């Protein structure tokens, strides 16, 4: 009964967010001031709200994805339903707080609540070690970035004399404070949106429930960084050094993550690395510092929310119906293409999601990705180095994205031509490798309560590309289509030959996790042991010695209490004689 009540509340709140977006659509931008407080005698912090086109866009994204996740979770989740639904609802409310804030400090509150909820949701299956480890890693890395975020708020707010976002004027902030403040904010954005070098937490967050991945890691929390820069775009656009840093970080991240996705062997991990890469494309558009770049980034944010949310929910269906989202287990079904035949709705919707992600012409991802390429081309044509960096990086990433999309689609849904190459090595370690093929007659598509959100998001993954008007630059469209084909054909060729090569450097994800372990985890553990030893053997030794001295003193005094009157009288006489002798010595 409690779980059902929470589900009703969760779905109702998500629908309320959608209703708010619908009511605010077309309303003139406005700010609403709420209660505030003074810090010292000069700085006043108010908690203000703001409504504009960006607010409506983000509310629509958050509301729709949250509603789909809440409905989908009714059929997906059976364990700890009440706490899960409460946390998802609180997380959605925190994201809404970020979206409607016109105060840097109110935005910070929503930003931090999201982080806390993500930690708890990633660790929902807390009895699993990988879920606990992933939750802790996400918490620590995002909190590390949030330290810079907090200082950035102070630098910009004090520099501008206000913490109200709509009143931040770049021309009123000194260049040094503007650059320092935006760079510090960028540190928090990098942590929250899993960009290099604070990127490794997102793939390790996949042990959480698949609906959580769809909500947090595809459309809301990780997208909050993109929203923040778009909200403060005028401030960031005035800081050239910050935009250059953002462009370099985004370019490195999109290529790095795409290469890691090419070698990943689990469906959700492929999608996680893809999320990191696609977010970097959005940041690349913002780093151009132009209105076209900002518009393209937000357009890609919109389409990405639809097709990546769809893909994570499809992965959840595979996990729910098959039992694992890993290629090494799914191959038991893909020998005969069993998943494609037994789960037609999941197959069709996931195909649409992968097509949109790969940028197949006609799907939403094609239009939004091309808009970023076009904005970069216009900027590069004006002689901008940042424009050229973004243009080349996005184009190369488009080819890599098509490769891993086709690779995953073929390996999951189609009959494996040959079990050879690197995949065979993984099967050798599979405890079920020697089992007979499973009984596919019992394999079914998910319940309708889980399939309905898939169908809705699949439709969105197609039609959202046309919401911005059918604007196609045919030269750029031809270029990106050719790049997608160049990425897809090698993936098809390798699959047809039964090969799935994963260079060691890619399979180990460039060894970044191992490097971080040596550089940070091992020294921290060593210092922790040093502190524990110092506390135990130095500080604790003095405490124990003081206690021991008290015990010994009390034991000595206890021995004097013999209960013998003669002993007490003798001691008294000796004391009197001693005092008399001492008085005589002093008097002389």
Automatic annotation (TrEMBL):
Q: What is the lineage of its organism?
A: Bacteria, Bacillati, Actinomycetota, Actinomycetes, Propionibacteriales
Looking at the UniProt entry, the stretches that span the membrane are 54-74, 81-99, 105-126, 147-165, 177-194, 215-239, 245-265, 270-289, 309-330, 342-365, 385-406, 448-466, 472-492, 568-587
Q: Report whether Translocase shows up as a keyword of the record.
A: no
NADH:quinone oxidoreductase/Mrp antiporter transmembrane domain span: 101-380
- Keyword Membrane part of the UniProt annotation: yes
Q: Which organism is it from?
A: Kribbella alba
Q: Report the Pfam families cross-referenced here.
A: Proton_antipo_M, Proton_antipo_N
List the keywords (alphabetical): Membrane, Transmembrane, Transmembrane helix
For this entry, the protein name equals NADH-quinone oxidoreductase subunit L
How does it sit in the bilayer?
Answer: Multi-pass membrane protein
């Amino acid at each position: 009964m409690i779980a059902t009540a929470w589900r009703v509340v969760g779905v109702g709140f998500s629908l309320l967010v959608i209703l708010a977006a619908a009511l605010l659509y077309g309303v003139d931008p406005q700010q609403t001031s709420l209660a505030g407080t003074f810090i010292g005698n000069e700085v006043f912090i108010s908690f203000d709200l703001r409504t504009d086109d960006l607010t409506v866009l983000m509310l629509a994204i958050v509301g729709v994805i949250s509603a789909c996740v809440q409905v989908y979770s009714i059929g997906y989740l059976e364990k700890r339903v009440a706490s899960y639904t409460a946390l998802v609802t609180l997380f959605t409310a925190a994201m809404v707080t970020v979206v409607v804030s016109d105060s840097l400090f109110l935005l910070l509150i929503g930003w931090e609540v999201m982080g806390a909820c993500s930690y708890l949701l990633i660790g929902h299956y807390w009895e699993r070690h990988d879920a606990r480890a992933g939750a802790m890693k996400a918490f620590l890395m995002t909190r590390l970035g949030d330290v810079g975020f907090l200082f950035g708020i102070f630098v910009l707010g004090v520099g501008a004399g206000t913490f109200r976002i709509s009143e931040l004027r770049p021309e009123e902030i000194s260049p040094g404070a503007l650059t320092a403040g935006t760079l510090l904010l960028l540190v928090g954005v990098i942590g929250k949106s899993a960009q290099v070098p604070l990127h490794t937490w997102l793939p390790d967050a996949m042990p959480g429930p698949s609906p959580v991945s769809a909500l947090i890691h595809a459309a809301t929390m990780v997208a909050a960084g993109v929203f923040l820069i778009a909200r403060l775009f005028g401030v960031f656009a005035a800081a050239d050094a910050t935009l250059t840093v953002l462009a370099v970080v985004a370019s490195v991240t999109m290529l790095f993550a795409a290469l890691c996705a090419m070698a990943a062997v689990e469906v959700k991990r492929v999608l996680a690395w893809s999320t990191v890469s696609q977010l970097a494309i959005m940041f690349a558009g913002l780093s151009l510092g132009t209105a076209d770049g900002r518009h393209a980034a937000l357009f890609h944010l919109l389409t990405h929310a639809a097709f990546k949310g769809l893909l994570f929910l499809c992965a959840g269906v595979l996990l729910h119906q098959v039992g694992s989202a890993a290629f090494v287990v799914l191959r038991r079904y893909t020998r005969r293409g069993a998943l494609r035949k037994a789960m037609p709705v999941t197959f069709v919707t996931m195909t649409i999601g992968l097509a949109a992600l790969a940028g197949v012409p006609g799907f939403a991802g094609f239009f939004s990705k091309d808009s970023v390429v076009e904005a970069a081309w216009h900027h590069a044509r004006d002689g901008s180095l940042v424009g050229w960096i973004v243009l080349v990086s996005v184009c190369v990433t488009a080819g890599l994205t098509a490769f891993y999309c086709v690779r995953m689609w073929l390996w999951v849904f189609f009959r494996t031509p040959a079990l050879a190459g690197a995949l065979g090595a993984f099967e050798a370690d599979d405890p079920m490798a020697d089992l007979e093929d499973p009984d596919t007659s019992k394999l079914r598509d998910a319940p309708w309560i889980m399939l309905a959100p898939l169908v809705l998001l699949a439709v969105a993954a197609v039609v959202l590309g046309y919401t911005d008007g059918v604007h196609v630059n045919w030269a750029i469209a031809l270029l990106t289509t050719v790049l997608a084909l160049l990425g897809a054909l090698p993936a098809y060729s390798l699959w047809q030959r039964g090969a799935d090569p994963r260079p060691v450097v890619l399979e180990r994800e460039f060894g970044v996790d191992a490097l971080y372990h040596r550089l940070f985890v091992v020294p921290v553990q060593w210092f922790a042991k040093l502190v524990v030893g110092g506390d135990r053997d130095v500080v604790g030794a003095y405490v124990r010695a003081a206690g021991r001295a008290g015990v010994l003193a009390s034991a000595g005094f206890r021995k004097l209490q013999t209960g013998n009157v003669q002993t007490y009288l003798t001691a008294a006489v000796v004391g009197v004689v001693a005092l008399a002798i001492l008085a005589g010595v002093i008097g002389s």
